[in-house]
């Protein structure tokens, strides 16, 4: 706990940075102010700084000793298109934009860790501080990879974290294997033949076919996937017609698929294709099915998860490290980094009550009391990975 105690002196400064970022939220690939703030802080610490990685990403490079070992630590910077409903002093200054997921806290904590490690570089190797844009659905991680992230900054492993409302303050959760699901989307167009509602036999009703399709899609998971292998298929949109007495030509259906295993993800997609073809044939409608793969599942490597659990125990005590809780059906583009490098993505307790309401909520605020734990975790992780001697 000595490391935690030493960080409390910097708590007010890091909190001020976090609240400044919260007050000035920027959406995906628009994080110009935030990226400039990050780059200027890193440069002031004497850390080699690279701007514009993956459009608006920033990478800091801190070297010590002579080892070629290197570790990557990642924080996301973007906000969400949500109208904030908080009235505290650091509320969003921009209508329709809000840090409702805690990326302001993630960015501030990694800056705090950079300051600690730069002030006392008691490690042997290189720490890469990865400030990533556009996590919220726009794919900032693959943008950084496409921009040569791992070629320009060769690291042995990469690590991430996310604050987790509901997990008590001072606790850290570590998963071996799956921690977050994939996030895929689908659109289905059911094209029939319009008719007068009083004379349905003269047309092909896409609403009826669509309703049957929605029902049939519920069997994709319940009757195709192993009951112990989690997946979710949710139909969230059904649009058809605009008159009471007209059977329309077209019905449109949309939704999302979540799964933890790539194999199950493919199995669900194939089953949906078969269901769409079958319903189209049964009702005489033309069914067009489009499946778009989004973020892949976030899957930690076991050795790195063990390593993170050990580092976390040194920060908050072994009793406060939660091993392999239920993973989340939410998604995270840190998954792309983990497809390229071994690593681990952990959850940091954000606590209940103020600062602990659910993510993507207009009343959410990152819990500043979690800052010392996050900074200490990053510092200890880097020190352990790049241990001298």
UniProtKB/TrEMBL annotation:
<dbReference type="GO" id="GO:0019877">
    <property type="term" value="P:diaminopimelate biosynthetic process"/>
</dbReference>
<dbReference type="InterPro" id="IPR002933">
    <property type="entry name" value="Peptidase_M20"/>
</dbReference>
<protein>
    <submittedName>
        <fullName>Hydrolase</fullName>
    </submittedName>
</protein>
<dbReference type="InterPro" id="IPR017439">
    <property type="entry name" value="Amidohydrolase"/>
</dbReference>
<feature type="binding site">
    <location>
        <position position="136"/>
    </location>
    <ligand>
        <name>Mn(2+)</name>
    </ligand>
</feature>
<dbReference type="GO" id="GO:0046872">
    <property type="term" value="F:metal ion binding"/>
</dbReference>
<keyword id="KW-0479">Metal-binding</keyword>
<keyword id="KW-0464">Manganese</keyword>
<dbReference type="InterPro" id="IPR036264">
    <property type="entry name" value="Bact_exopeptidase_dim_dom"/>
</dbReference>
<feature type="binding site">
    <location>
        <position position="162"/>
    </location>
    <ligand>
        <name>Mn(2+)</name>
    </ligand>
</feature>
<dbReference type="Pfam" id="PF01546">
    <property type="entry name" value="Peptidase_M20"/>
</dbReference>
<feature type="binding site">
    <location>
        <position position="360"/>
    </location>
    <ligand>
        <name>Mn(2+)</name>
    </ligand>
</feature>
<feature type="binding site">
    <location>
        <position position="103"/>
    </location>
    <ligand>
        <name>Mn(2+)</name>
    </ligand>
</feature>
<feature type="domain" description="Peptidase M20 dimerisation">
    <location>
        <begin position="186"/>
        <end position="276"/>
    </location>
</feature>
<dbReference type="InterPro" id="IPR011650">
    <property type="entry name" value="Peptidase_M20_dimer"/>
</dbReference>
<dbReference type="Pfam" id="PF07687">
    <property type="entry name" value="M20_dimer"/>
</dbReference>
<dbReference type="GO" id="GO:0050118">
    <property type="term" value="F:N-acetyldiaminopimelate deacetylase activity"/>
</dbReference>
<keyword id="KW-0378">Hydrolase</keyword>
<feature type="binding site">
    <location>
        <position position="101"/>
    </location>
    <ligand>
        <name>Mn(2+)</name>
    </ligand>
</feature>
């Amino acid at each position: 706990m000595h490391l935690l105690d030493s960080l409390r002196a910097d708590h007010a400064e890091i909190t001020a940075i976090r609240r400044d970022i919260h007050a000035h939220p920027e959406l995906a690939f628009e994080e110009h102010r935030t990226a400039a703030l990050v780059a200027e802080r890193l440069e002031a610490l004497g850390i080699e700084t690279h701007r514009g990685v993956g459009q608006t990403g920033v990478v800091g490079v801190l070297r010590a000793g002579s080892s070629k070992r290197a570790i990557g630590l990642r924080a996301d910077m973007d906000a969400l298109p949500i109208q904030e409903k908080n009235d505290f002093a650091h509320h969003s200054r921009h209508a329709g934009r809000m840090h409702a997921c805690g990326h302001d806290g993630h960015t501030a904590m990694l800056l705090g860790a950079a300051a600690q490690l730069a002030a006392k570089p008691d490690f042997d190797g290189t720490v890469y501080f990865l400030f990533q844009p556009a996590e919220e659905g726009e794919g900032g991680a693959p943008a950084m990879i496409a921009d040569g992230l791992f070629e320009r900054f060769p690291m042995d492993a990469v690590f991430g974290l996310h604050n987790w409302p509901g997990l008590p303050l001072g606790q850290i959760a570590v998963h071996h294997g799956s921690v977050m699901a994939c996030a895929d989307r689908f659109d289905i167009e059911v094209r029939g033949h319009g008719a007068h509602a009083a004379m349905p036999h003269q047309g092909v009703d896409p609403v009826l076919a669509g309703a049957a399709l929605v029902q049939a899609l519920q069997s994709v998971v319940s009757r195709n996937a192993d009951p112990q292998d989690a997946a979710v298929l949710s139909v969230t949109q059904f649009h058809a017609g605009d008159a009471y007495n007209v059977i329309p030509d077209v019905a449109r259906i949309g939704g999302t698929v979540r799964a933890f295993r790539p194999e199950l993800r493919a199995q669900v997609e194939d089953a949906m294709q078969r269901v769409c073809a079958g319903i189209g044939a049964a009702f005489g409608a033309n069914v067009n099915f489009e499946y778009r793969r989004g973020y892949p599942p976030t899957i930690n490597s076991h050795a790195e998860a063990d390593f993170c659990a050990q580092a976390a125990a040194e920060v908050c005590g072994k009793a406060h490290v939660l091993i392999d809780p239920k993973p989340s059906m939410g998604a995270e583009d840190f998954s792309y980094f983990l497809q390229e490098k071994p690593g681990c993505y952990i959850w940091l307790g954000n606590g209940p009550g103020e600062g602990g309401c659910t993510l993507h909520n207009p009343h959410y605020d990152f819990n500043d009391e979690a800052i010392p734990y996050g900074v200490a975790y990053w510092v200890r992780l880097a020190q352990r990975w790049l241990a001298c001697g």
